[in-house]
Design goal:
Immunoglobulin-like, about 30% helix, TIM Barrel, alpha/beta, 16 strands, five-stranded antiparallel sheet, binds ligand 9MR
């Protein structure tokens, strides 16, 4: 609904023709017609300081000659002519609107458009379309009894910029998203490559940020030469021992913990051990051997077993605790990946992971937290209702973690900073918004959920 009155003075002016007189020594002498230039529609918008449901629209289009500017406020009222000064437009209804400025002259039509999101439960028109948090509390400062982690990449820590700024301001622990896995650190036999891992570890050390090592052994990040290993089984085992010893020793004293083995349990019936190349060549006790070599290389480093679906599958959880019990003193903690959704698994199933870990006197790492807001692909944008539900789940997870005894706490690691960087988008192949920051690093409601979970 437009506030100010519209008066219709259409400024249709003639096409600009410029006639120049020339010397006359060319066959092509004569009037030169300079065609009108296209004028690019441009506008700026802001929220009225005196009314959070009023948008201020400022037509910034400039150019040579005359042009007509018209607005489409995206509320079904058609086109209205732009008037001198700033337009004030009310947006009272929740929803997402497309505001367009259409500018035409004799050269044609150009359009500038911007999206307006209104969420009255979040206070009216959302700044930059972000109906999320305006909190200024840093996560790491609010969480005083455990590390708040996130993932990173060497390219991102090397580039600096906003990613690094947010990591440093909100997080007290980092995990390499993929560069501290065997396929990257040990790409060919006898040739280690720690370039990327070094960059990440050094970034953590230099900035006083804990580094969690992830992950020494994972069937899904094993280089081809290891999967196709041509030597004997004892040569294979010696190779794995050398890899673990070399890697853990390299970062001794620099990183606080390692996921020694990741995702060793199969999802199939009975949750047996996955039939990985490590199991095939080293036997069922390959996990114990790997933990022993890691322990020997750095006795002060916390050693974790890390796996997914710990909350949603009681069978897998039981298989995980069986592995953990068999490891005895070789293991310090359980890494429970938290790839979950706004609507599940239930609070009691998440609590069961915490209870099982605490009752064994182990540290708990809620690892790889992301909360899908669109698991059934029934949304094209993050609605206010879904953002609220996602926020509630973030709060629930943090509350459960924050309530365990101090001795069992270690870290809660979120698997990604901004929504558009999440691995889930490619994995599921449709839109989702599973993290705490939107694509522009604005804090979402999920961020407030995390903070509220700490209260
Ligand atoms: O998010 C990670 C993705 O960028 C990597 O390509 C992939 C392979 O290294 O690993 C992803 O992270 C996985 C994590 O290491 C273990 N649990 C499942 C995560 C998602 O696949």
């Amino acid at each position: 609904m437009k506030i100010k009155n519209i008066f219709n003075i259409l400024k249709v002016l003639p096409i600009l023709l410029l006639t120049l007189s020339c010397d006359g020594d060319s066959d092509n002498d004569g009037p030169i017609i300079i065609p009108p230039t296209r004028v690019q529609a441009t506008f700026e918008m802001s929220i009225s300081p005196s009314d959070p449901n009023v948008l201020l629209l400022d037509n910034k289009t400039s150019g040579i000659g005359d042009f007509i500017s018209e607005w489409d406020f995206g509320q079904g009222d058609g086109l209205v002519q732009d008037l001198p000064g700033i337009e004030e437009v009310r947006f009272d209804t929740d929803g997402t609107f497309s505001v367009r400025l259409l500018v035409s002259n004799a050269a044609g039509l150009t359009v500038d458009s911007k999206t307006v999101v209104v969420d009255n439960s979040a206070g009216g028109i959302c700044p930059n379309g972000n109906c999320g948090s305006t909190s200024t509390s840093a996560l790491k400062d609010a969480a005083t009894t455990f590390f708040v982690g996130n993932i990173t990449r060497s390219s991102r820590v090397n580039a600096g910029g906003k990613h690094v700024e947010v990591l440093k301001s909100d997080f007290s622990s980092i995990t390499s998203e993929y560069e501290m896995k065997m396929n990257v650190m040990y790409p060919s036999q006898g040739n280690y490559d720690f370039t990327a891992a070094d960059a990440i570890v050094n970034f953590g050390v230099n900035n006083g940020i804990n580094v969690h090592g992830h992950a020494l052994i994972w069937h899904n990040a094993t280089p081809d030469w290891v999967n196709d290993f041509t030597g004997t089984d004892s040569e294979f085992e010696a190779m794995v021992k050398d890899y673990i010893t070399t890697t853990v020793t390299r970062y001794k004293g620099k990183i606080g913990s390692w996921d020694v083995v990741n995702e060793a349990i199969d999802d199939g019936s009975g949750n047996p051990l996955r039939n990985s190349v490590f199991k095939q060549k080293m036997g069922d006790d390959y996990i114990k051997k790997c933990f022993q070599w890691a322990r020997d290389a750095d006795p002060d480093c916390l050693l974790f077993y890390n796996d997914y679906n710990m909350a949603s599958s009681s069978g897998k959880r039981a298989a995980m605790f069986k592995i953990v019990d068999d490891l005895g003193d070789l293991i310090d903690g359980v890494g429970a990946q938290m790839h979950i959704s706004y609507n599940g698994p239930s609070k009691s199933n998440i609590q069961a992971v915490a209870n099982g870990t605490v009752s064994r006197g182990l540290k708990l790492h809620f690892a790889e937290l992301d909360i899908r807001a669109n698991p059934n692909n029934d949304q094209t944008s993050l609605t206010s209702q879904r953002a609220d539900a996602q926020k509630a789940k973030f709060k629930e997870v943090v509350q459960i973690y924050n309530s365990i005894p101090l001795d069992n706490k270690y870290a809660l690691t979120v698997w990604g900073l901004k929504d558009n960087e999440s691995w889930l988008l490619d994995f599921w192949g449709h839109a989702d918004w599973p993290l705490m920051y939107d694509d522009d690093y604005n804090k979402k409601k999920a961020y407030d959920g995390f903070l509220e979970g700490l209260q």
